[in-house]
Amino acid sequence: MYLGEKLIKREPFRWGIVGGGKTSQVGYKHRLGAMRDNTSFLLTAAAFDVDAERCREFGVSLGMDADRCYPDYKTMFEEEAKREDGIEVVDVATPNFLHYEVTKAALEAGLHVICEKPLFFEAEQGEEIKKLAEEKGKIVAVTYGFSGFDMLKQMRAMVTSGKLGKINMIELRYAHGFGCDPEGDVKSEGQKWRVNPAKVGKAFVLGDLSTHTYYMSQLICPDQKLKEVLCDRQAFVGSRYPLEDNAYVLMHYEDGAVGRMWCSCVNAGDMSSQHIRIVGSKASLEWNDARPDVVKYQIQGQPEQLLYRGLDYLDASAQEDERIGALHYTGLIDSWSNLYKRFAVVMDAKDRGDEETVKNVIYPDLDHGIDGIKWINACAESADKGAVWVQV
Ligand code: NAD
């Protein structure tokens, strides 16, 4: 059980944010996740916003030093580098088209990076950043924010210990209805860039939604290597072409397993967005994010079981993030807090040269970010060629 005690033997990381300002969808999730335990991160500086005045006002309203609320990220990196107490790590929580340039500049400024998904537009950019991060001895982590739920580690432990037998089918879904209204594409600041190919990349929901669920499937089934995808995508709100608001993807894995992903923002009215079902030769597991504390475990020929968070029968890896005891419900911010806890541990280990810990911490790393880019681009290519199989 984890009771918020300090896990790193140093002062909290001095932490800055680019994007994630007052009007953003995701900024508060980062702050809640990072500062939940109050021992790992201290919000020190920010370039929160495209609007410099709004950045400053917002920072001050959070109790920050007005002089450290910067008009843009370049000024922030430059000014912070001059200070003895300058930032050591930065979040990139801007629209997608800025992720690459901000991450690159941050690494060049000697900072660890926590970047939003989808990481960048091209896998080559990911490889270039990987080389730079290695040269600089820094971590680049990706905020697949749903992936910190402890029951996902339970599923991973059951899959890797063979409880399901050989994994045959992976059924994935991230489908909600919040894109049904075309007005949102014009009115919402956060939606406008999501439907603009220059700012979002080659895909809309395949990047915005399905990269989360795809990473979570990798987390649960670390040995399944995706070989090829066949994708059909469409925009039911026609103005979104050539991007999609709905997509179906078939998957082939290297070992013969198969999979399916449905991602959509026009699944009208459905509030249980993410579903994951892993089917093995002997048994299956099922989870959905509307009820993240429970995993359904079905052994062929036996009554099905519900596994609940916080109980002694769970694997030790699932219990280590457990904070509040069984019966009391957790939510998305617990997942974010668990992720940030792992980010702090891995960044601290990297700074101390403890590569063993770096290797063993389970978190969405740069390689997973690059896998997400490959996933999006292979799906988009497949769909645009008329739904043909494309190697990932
Ligand atoms: P948004 O449009 O709601 O907010 C973007 C924020 O970035 C705003 O505060 C804006 O002022 C700021 N910004 C824009 N350009 C900037 C610049 N040049 N410098 C500094 N700040 C700038 O977008 P959002 O929904 O918050 O998404 C931001 C990122 O987070 C995207 O990459 C998105 O995919 C990701 N996201 C992730 C999750 C998750 O669960 N991990 C959830 C939502 C969004």
Q: Which properties best describe this structure?
A:
globular, Gfo/Idh/MocA_oxidoreduct, about 400 residues, 5-stranded parallel beta sheet, single chain, Gfo/Idh/MocA-like_OxRdtase_N, Gfo/Idh/MocA family oxidoreductase, binds nicotinamide-adenine-dinucleotide, Gfo/Idh/MocA-like_OxRdtase_C, alpha/beta, Rossmann fold
Name the structural class.
alpha/beta
Going across the biggest sheet, name each strand in turn. 13-12-11-10-6-9-8-7-14
CATH fold-level name of the largest domain: Dihydrodipicolinate Reductase, domain 2
Overall structural domain count? 2
- Rg (C-alpha, Å): 21 Å
Domain Gfo/Idh/MocA-like oxidoreductase C-terminal: 156-392
Protein name: Gfo/Idh/MocA family oxidoreductase
Pfam family, one: GFO_IDH_MocA_C
Domain Gfo/Idh/MocA-like oxidoreductase N-terminal: 13-144
